[in-house]
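Supplementary Text 2. Reproducibility record for the structural model of the 271-residue chain.

All settings were left at their defaults, and a single model was retained for analysis rather than an ensemble. We include the record here because the model underlies the residue-level annotations in Supplementary Table 4.
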Amino acid sequence: MTSIGVCSWSLSPSNVQDLVRDVKAIGADGVQLALGPLVNGEWPVTETLAALRDAGITVHSGMMAFNGEDYTTLETVQHTGGVRLDSTWDENLKFAHDIAVMCRAEGIGLVSFHAGFIPHDANDPVRALMMERLRAVLDVFARQAIRLAFETGQETADTLLEVLDELAMPNVGVNFDPANMILYGMGDPVEALRKLAPHVWQIHIKDATHTAVPGTWGAEVVVGTGDVDWDAFFGVIQERRLGVDLMIEREAGDSRVEDMKSALALIRAKQ
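Retained model, structure tokens:
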């Protein structure tokens, strides 16, 4: 059964009490939880999860953001995103291990992350290196019986399909983010969802507009005001019977609780 939640990092909470307050204000009862603060000791694991549980908020999945990632520009994220950065690889593999162990202990069965810009050319040596590192991360999570989902956007749907086929590992799938396809200029999100549907394990509800200047970011906007064709998007969800969780994400703007309430209303109207 599909559940609706919000991405915790969108709300920039200082502590779990802030998170509970804002999730309740939005009208949601589930979250995708940023796991870094728990593993790093900023948020005590037991107390955080108990507070969410006591508030009636379900943790549907986690999010892993690797150290060293720089999202300032498309160029900086291309060189630092996901598993690509050499200087932080060893610490990030250990970080992934710590997250996987915690998730197994706490019953969090799905984690999403950005793999990084995977080159489209199958013969690119950087692609071979990234594939080796992705297998290592997947192995870490497989040993803890945790599923991993690559977040879409930093490569086309066709490239991602090639990568999934080449990896051929049962614990890897897709966290589909339609806005990222637009922000990164990687194709139409509706057609991408149709291609990737068999591999989709979770969906981010986020919207964006295309850039007018190639090589620069598009703009993230309130859900329903951008270039995602939500009627067609939800049509594919229904057509392919994707009974996956929908997590509302908002990474721009100064009224995120209100913006995410609008997104929740749109989801309910489309279902």
